[in-house]
Amino acid sequence: MPANTLEQDVNDLMHAVGLLVRRTRNESYAGELSMTESMVMARLANDGPATTAALARAEGIKPQSMGTTITSLEDMGIVKRTPHATDGRQMLIELTLKGVRLRNKNREAKQLWLSRAIAELKPEERNTLFKAAGIVKRLAEQPLK
Q1: 25-42 in b/e burial notation, b at 16+ Cβ within 10 A?
Q2: What's the CATH number where 29 sits?
Q3: d(CA 79, CA 68)
Q4: What is the pLDDT of residues 69-93, one digit of tens each?
Q5: Contact, 120 vs 112, CB < 8 A?
Q6: CA 92, CA 79: separation in Å to the nearest integer?
Q7: Number of structural domains, the chain?
């Protein structure tokens, strides 16, 4: 059996990561949210309030698209807009208490499922998986070229 080419291995890795992301999403309560809405909630939870423009840059989408996402989250009561402390022209987007609770509930559900699934692996598989996670994180954090 011939070895995979680098291109095949890269495709397999992308497919596997995509399956894992979709599975963890399905195990959470985030099914009613789009991927962008979930990512915005995570960014606000981790980094604190931000402008629509900053969120758009961070997610690599157009400000108009981010505005639509923010409006949707606002309509659900998950985020709110507050005036910027030093720039009266800007509004900061932040999670509401409902948004924080939903984010925590989703994260806990995902972690519970993944912890249980990983616990079923052999110890050497777990070690390999955790080493690979560090490498994947480094790849994801590389600056865009």
Answers
A1: bebbebeebeebbbbbbe
A2: 1.10.10.10
A3: 13
A4: 999 999 999 999 999 888 878 899 9
A5: no
A6: 10
A7: 1
